[in-house]
Design goal:
Structural class: alpha+beta
CATH class of the largest domain: Alpha Beta
Strand content: 15-25%
CATH superfamily of the largest domain: Glutaredoxin
Number of strands: 11
CATH topology of the largest domain: Glutaredoxin
Shape: elongated
Oligomer: single chain
CATH architecture of the largest domain: 3-Layer(aba) Sandwich
Helix content: 25-40%
Radius of gyration: 20 Å
Largest sheet: 5 strands, mixed
Order of helices and strands: EEHEHHEHEHEEHEEHEE
Length: 219
């Protein structure tokens, strides 16, 4: 069965570069970003991992843990981590799952469930293992972003999306096109005007009856 937004993120146990972990226990009360790679020692992924490591303090500020996955053994990850440091100047400062047996990739619908071959796999064989999952403290999947191997991920967009999801989890608002933190927000259509007055006594701007904007609510 395919995963959908709002589904519970599948639980698993896995070996990582920081030891064995049980995913839901590791998540605790935090948010998480789980991001996957089709193979170690691949160029685009090398640049991405270095940038995730550089920006880890930004994810920390948002109460969000990082965890990577690559379809190789943990021992191979250790050598790749040195390459990542050589290229980016960054130590990999989050766990990397060794998914040599394809268990997590299949669990998260990145490879067909019937796939069994683990030896001799190439990045092209694993091309679909290029997904970002944003997972909430309630263990539910809040967002999924899928990238081709040839296109590096935009971490500024992942942070922006995380900011939007966390904001809208706290307040009955939505964020409009090209929103960035501090920008105007939209009152959730599920609130009628009377309910909106209770939530936002400062009032709002009515662009259309269904489009009411306010300054970003304070935490």
């Amino acid at each position: 069965m395919s995963l959908k937004l709002g589904d519970i993120a599948p639980d698993f146990e896995a070996d990582t570069t920081e030891g064995s972990l049980h995913f839901h226990d590791w998540l605790g009360e935090s948010w998480a970003v789980l991001f996957s790679h089709p193979k170690d020692f691949t160029p685009v992924c090398t640049t991405e991992l270095g940038e995730f490591a550089r920006l880890k303090p930004e994810f920390d500020k948002r109460g969000t843990k990082l965890i990577g996955l690559s379809v190789d053994k943990v021992g191979d990850h250790q050598g790749w981590m040195q390459d990542i440091k050589d290229v980016s100047g960054q130590d990999v400062n989050f766990p990397m799952i060794g998914d040599h047996d394809l268990k997590v990739s299949k669990l998260y619908n990145m490879l067909p469930a019937e796939e069994t071959e683990t030896e001799g796999r190439t990045a092209a064989t694993n091309a679909t293992v290029r997904t970002v999952y944003i997972i909430g403290p309630d263990r539910k999947i809040k967002a999924m972003l899928i990238y081709p191997m040839s296109s590096g991920r935009n971490l500024a967009e992942i942070l922006r999306l995380l900011d939007s999801i966390q904001l809208t989890a706290k307040h009955p608002v939505a964020t409009p096109v090209n929103w960035n933190p501090g920008g105007e927000c939209i009152i959730a259509p599920s609130l009628d005007d009377e309910q909106a007055k209770d939530k936002f006594p400062g009032g709002w701007k009515t662009v259309k009856p269904y489009l009411r904007t306010i300054p970003q609510p304070a935490d």
